[in-house]
Amino acid sequence: MNILHMMASFRSNLFAMYRGDFKVIPPPSSKSAVWLCTGCIKYSGFQVGFLVWGYIVMWLILFAITFILSMMIDGYLAELVEEIKTICQTWPGVLVAMVLLVLQGLLARFVFLQGSASFLRLDNRNSYFIFAYFMFFYNIFLGVVSCLLRILKAVVIGAVFLARLDSSTLPRRFEAWDSGLSAYTGFVHMEAAHTHPVLNVFVRLLVSLNRTKRLDGLARALDVHITSNDSDINDSQDDQSCPRRNPVGVTAKFKWFLVYTLLHNPQIRLYRQGYIQSVKKARQDGLRVPISDRPIVQFDLTQLRTAQGESDQAIPSPGQDATVSGPATHLVHVPSSVVVSGGTSDADDIDVDMIEDLEDIEDSSGFLRDPMGSGDTELLMPV
């Protein structure tokens, strides 16, 4: 029964703390966090120990009751009845005490207080002081009897509720000395701090908002793409559900990443969309296109045709050049003075390392060679 009552009391105390009601359990500000955490740690062990002692005390009380009953059954009943008769001879005193207690209550309700006795407001002050003066002597004897009853009540209640940690047998001012109540208080505060429904919902909302922000940022990052002509980075408008927050910052960030990547990896300039479209346009017009990553719109086709005629005159004779089978090819002259490792190159040329990479990739559509043995490299591309 004590365990069931204690579980119900714990539930009511926990809900009261959820509401901010600290009438039974002291507020957390009155105790330190270390004190509450220590009490929570000790609660489970203390509860078992208090239950053991509660069982022992209840067993002793039941033993005393059964012992008295056995004495009455074995022949002491007559003597016990005589003692009860002796005590009952004092019934006038008991009756007077009960009358005085009832009389004080009735006079306080209907004579001394104003109205319906809802508020503490004296009406007949003179009568009140006279009655309190004459009742002083009688209340002394009532106090003696009341003290004996208090001791008996404390013993009975302390024995019955000894196993319960949610109720202290000490006065309110001395509850700090009750180690069992301290452990229970720490346990309840720990549960309320980590299972408060409003706090849990608030924290989950914050976590959900943070996750949504990170997912939106990732979606915006994936929507950004490089344009095919001017290599500018624009935000895609396909996913209208993702809000666009500060697209300028995202574009600037990706531009910086692009520049940083190209500076440290110059060979990948050949694989950018600007250069690929330039090659396609040159194949359509039969032109020799300088190796560059600039868009096709920046090339003057008339100048390229003029430059093609001049470069055809500089092509070596068939006897000096290696025979190339397959489709017709045009040569792109690349000086060997191009800086190779991580440096800057001419806008119309390409690094030697870039050409070596193209030799492995474009073995079916073009090849590299140095027919004159001068250290300069020529790139052959089919028209």
TrEMBL record:
**Any Pfam family the entry gives:** RBP_receptor
Major localisation: membrane
Highest rank taxon of the organism: Eukaryota
- Compartments (UniProt record): Cell membrane
Please name the GO terms that the record assigns under molecular function.
Answer: retinol transmembrane transporter activity; signaling receptor activity
Task: List residues traversing the bilayer.
Answer: 52-78, 90-110, 130-163
Q: Which InterPro entries is this protein grouped with? A: STRA6-like
Report what the protein is called.
Answer: Uncharacterized protein
Organism of provenance: Elysia chlorotica
